[in-house]
Amino acid sequence: IDALMYVEAAEEAFRKGYKRCEMSMILEDNVMMNRIIQRIGGEIYKTYRIYEMVF
């Protein structure tokens, strides 16, 4: 259902003339979400890193 919602939203945005959109912060190990984004024509253009300091 999530994938269908993203596809419908992307198609409607393109029909309305949008050229770009941002999907918020999606972790690089979120394989399912990244796969959906790429399948609907999305491009990963930023990568954020989260580090943890262990004492």
Describe the structure.
The protein has 55 residues and is mainly α. The protein has one domain. Helix content is 42%, strand content 0%. It is built from 2 helices and no strands. It is elongated and about 50 Å long. The model has no long low-confidence stretch (mean pLDDT 85).
Helix content: 40-55%
Count of β-strands: 0
Rounded average pLDDT: 85
Question: N-to-C terminal Cα separation, in Å?
Answer: 42 Å
In DSSP terms (H or I, runs of 4 or more residues), the helix count works out at: 2
Protein name: N-acetyltransferase domain-containing protein
Organism: marine sediment metagenome
Strand and helix layout:
Layout: H1 2-15, H2 31-39
Summarize the structure.
This protein has 55 residues and is an all-alpha fold. It has 2 helices and no strands. The protein is elongated.
Main traits of this protein?
single chain; 55 residues; 2 helices
